[in-house]
Design a protein that fits this description.
The protein is 59% helix and 4% strand. It has 316 residues and is mainly alpha-helical. It has 2 domains: 114 residues, Tyrosine recombinase, N-terminal domain (DNA polymerase, domain 1); 134 residues, hpI Integrase, Chain A, CATH 1.10.443.10. α2 crosses α5 and α7 runs antiparallel to α8. It starts with a strand and ends in a 6-residue tail after the last helix.
Length: 316
């Protein structure tokens, strides 16, 4: 038995295969470190269960021999430990990804994993801001911090998130050269290293220019960070989230008013104004249209609420 450098016990052949799989995830699929950590945690629990179930640290042979009953016993144990449906579904996704990679590489084949059903998970609907609240938030963003340039930075960042529908990580990864003054589009590197071009509104440029003029840190080249922290380094996402937390407390907005809610607001407000769903999918960088269709559920939910409120036959 060996303990893999990734943090769990396994036979040498399995430990080596897992390390090669995770190198492939990073190099070929562009999987983030956070996803790798989540896979590690789930895989560690799975292998620990199999070790106890089979009485020895698992190797490739053990993984190949597992039956559907074994996989169901593992999920049952996870549920007994308090893991909810979403957690169990994520665990299955990570383990299934490993099995598929091993199968494609001709290392082992186990059809039982394909017959395992994931728990049904109802994805929560996005919680966007209303258009007036979004406008007020962007207006107030510059007034919060003590240092005026930091307020203008926050205002520029939040305007970019709302105006272009970016994820916080995508926005903070931008360099000065990625979004020069007057550019009509910005090239964004999204999940899975997928690129997309997003139009940039004049209001976004105006906010960025005000921030650039006030920022005390000189632009040292096109690869300098677009958004800087108080010490001049690239702005950390946790700082941006904390700034938003203080801003929503000041304005009396709900806890759902986060940087990511601005991306939801971008999509919801476009859809409400008649934008094509496929176009919104491209702007958001969603791989699947079904992900974008969640925004239509918001309008349906509002419509039902209006109906139940107003229709005489809906009242009880």
């Amino acid at each position: 038995m060996v303990t893999a450098s990734l943090g769990f016990a396994a036979q040498p052949d399995l430990a080596d295969a897992i390390e090669r799989w995770q190198r492939w995830l990073v190099a070929e699929k562009g999987v983030s470190r956070a996803t790798i950590r989540a896979y590690n945690n789930d895989l560690s629990g799975f292998l620990s269960f199999i070790a106890g179930h089979r009485g020895r640290a698992p190797g490739l042979n053990e993984l190949a021999a597992l039956t559907l009953s074994d996989f169901r016993a593992w999920l049952s144990a996870r549920a007994g430990d308090g893991a909810g449906a979403a957690t169990r579904a994520r665990s299955i996704a990570g383990v299934r990804n490993l099995y598929r990679w091993l199968d494609r590489g001709g290392v082992l084949h186990n059809p039982a994993i394909g017959a395992l059903n994931s728990p049904r998970v109802k994805r929560p609907l996005p919680r966007p801001l209303t258009a007036p609240d979004a406008a007020a938030l962007l207006e107030e963003a510059a007034s919060l911090p003590d240092a005026p340039w930091i307020g203008l930075r926050d205002q520029a960042l939040f305007t970019l998130l709302y105006g272009c529908g970016l994820r916080i990580g995508e926005a903070l990864a931008l360099n000065q050269g990625d979004l020069p003054s007057g550019a009509t589009t910005v090239r964004v590197l999204g999940k899975g290293s997928k690129e997309r071009q997003v139009p940039v509104l004049p209001a976004v440029h105006a906010a960025l220019e005000a921030y650039r003029q006030a920022c005390p840190w000189p632009v040292t080249g096109s690869d300098a960070p677009l958004f800087r922290g108080s010490r001049g380094d690239r702005l950390n996402p946790s700082v941006a989230r904390r700034q938003m937390q203080m801003l929503r407390a000041q304005m009396g907005l709900p806890d759902s008013a986060t940087p990511h809610a601005l991306r939801h607001s971008f999509a919801t407000h476009l859809l409400g104004s008649g934008a094509d769903l496929r176009a919104i999918q491209d702007l958001l960088g969603h791989a699947s249209l079904s992900t974008t269709q969640r925004y239509t559920d918001i309008d349906t939910e509002k419509l039902l609420a209006v109906y139940e409120d107003a229709h005489p036959r809906a009242r009880r």
